[in-house]
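Input.
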Amino acid sequence: MQHDLVNAKVLVVGDVMLDRYWSGPVQRISPEAPVPIVHVGDIEERAGGAGNVALNVTALSGNSAICTLVGKDEGASKLVEIMRGNAVKTYFVETDLPTITKLRVLSQHQQLLRMDFEVGFEGVDKAPLLDQFSLCLEDYNAVIISDYGKGVLTDVQLLIQKARAKGIPVLVDPKGADFSKYHGASVITPNMKEFELVVGRCASEEALVQKAQNLINEVALEAILITRSEKGMTLVDRHGGVFNIPTLAKEVFDVTGAGDTVIAVLGMALSVGYSYEEAMSLANAAAGVVVGKIGTATLTLAELHRALNKTTKIPSGVIDQAELLEAMQLSHLQGEKVVMTNGCFDILHAGHVTYLKAARKLGDRLIVAVNDDPSVARLKGASRPIVSLENRMSLLAALECVDWVVAFSEDTPHRIISEVLPDILVKGADYEVHQIAGSKEVLENGGEVKTITLVPGCSTSAIISKILEEGIS
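Output.
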């Protein structure tokens, strides 16, 4: 499977709200009361709560839908307009209660006032919501439950059971002092304050981990991801694994919606095959971007990749297979596609360079697997190689188009290709795809196999023959 966030299909269910922002300069204090007068010059409307989670998914080029309760009012109509305008499918169940709306008044990027317009949906019949959720569940490979305590999720346990019965992972952004209602979910993502509200104060790192493991067992979770502001994130899984990661945020303007971004990215990553630790790294980088924006915000794949690039040093050059796999993991975390090719590359020539440049253009990183000296001798004869493995690898690593050079000892690269499993496997056009070593494994893993036309008249054998001829004459 290719670790590609664009393949994520995430269904978000929970409390949605319309966020309104009125912004303008403050030039004087009101004569009626000691409060600033904001000359409103800009009005913006965004989807908050579960809506912002869904928007984060599509902003990162994934597919998302939202299932929720709204009113029969202008606020709901505006939310539909916002969501559909951002490629989010809407499964809105209308009620006689008003759509939840929050109005924020800002000046110079600072909030001065927030006004909430809400009744809550606690007493509303949830059967229509459950029916709608069941109907659209089949089309998604992850469910995110966004709980803001507004009453949409009073039957949250039924939602979890329906999704888990179909083998779909369920992620929960929790609310309240009782997490037992999320029993059986895959992962919950409380912040530190929310976590300690449930388990009590954590006086040490050891206490935090122990309480997290106890909660995992009590609520039958796979993992807990605790967001810890300036301390970053802590992930604890049911197998006893503990992973800590520092925050990547440089400037914090507004934490509104940061939790929405974390769970959106986490859900997308898990849905396409990332491990919990890898998904956490992506979510942490994403959160570091959005807290530098005002209000409920999203980020693009390009912004996420830039954030990861700034903090992740990916090794390059001549490496062994274990180092290569680690480097590929970091590359995949940045959303990059890895291309792989192989050969003897004895006496590097213009044909080789042209071929490698073309291979590199097919993706973001290029691996060149090189036959070691004994395997070249078996394939080409006792007089080969002309150039030693060490020197061949050094020359290849010096090419701008080559990221990683790795050696293998077998006559064919089948083993190393089937273990490395690049996103794209490349070979010369003198091969049919089914003849290419490792092609079957790469294709079965969701990758691609491509061929490139070789430069005519360029070969190591021809160079050797010319040298010998001229030497004899």
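The first strand starts at residue 9 and ends at 14.
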